[in-house]
Amino acid sequence: QVQLVESGGGLVQAGGSLRLSCAASGLTFSWYHWGWFRQAPGIERRFVAVISRNGTNSAYADSVKGRFTISRDNAKDTVYLQMNSLEPEDTAVYYCAADRDAVLVTTTQAYDYWGQGTQVAVSS
Are the beta carbons of 11 and 121 closer than 8 angstroms? Predict the structure, then answer.
């Protein structure tokens, strides 16, 4: 059974940092691209970042470029999202997801597995 477990969310002041983790089990971690998405109340789930199978390529939403960094550790079956210079607009539930497409994909429909989400709240 595939399980993706996010952690590291919480409440932080604007300008602060958080590091999210997503630990995977029940699948071959290195076969997948890994993405982070977020969903704020009343808004559809949106792409944040994605990293390739070997970690050499990544892509980011314009809103987080230069502030967020996605990384992965294939030995630990874990993907990370380092979030710096957080803004109140970053407040959302953050989800990790796994995708086996040939190229990096930013649409939710492409992803095969999802975690349960972790809440991030940024106060002004």
Answer: yes
